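Worked example 2:
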Amino acid sequence: NDLYLTELGNIFNVSREHFLIDYKDGAYVIVDRCSSCGTLVEGELVGEGKKGGSRCLENNDVIIVGTSESRYVFKFILMGST
C-alpha cells in the first residue's frame, strides 16, 4: 500500500488493502480489492461484501473509501486534462 488510512471509533469503512488505481489499455481503472464495504465512485458502488470489482475512472471522479459515511473522500484529477 502506498497510502495508509486509519479510522477512529467503532465504525469501520476502510479495509486493510481497500483499493488500487491502475492504468490499463489506455485508461485509469479503480480496483476494489475485496473490501468489506466497497468503494463509491461518483455514487456507484464498486465491490462490497469482499467480492471486489473494478470501474474505469474519469477526470474529476469523486472516490469515497467505504460507505457514504466515510470521512475519506478523494477526487481523481488527471493532470493536463481540461
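DSSP finds no helices and seven strands in the chain. The longest strand covers residues 19-24.
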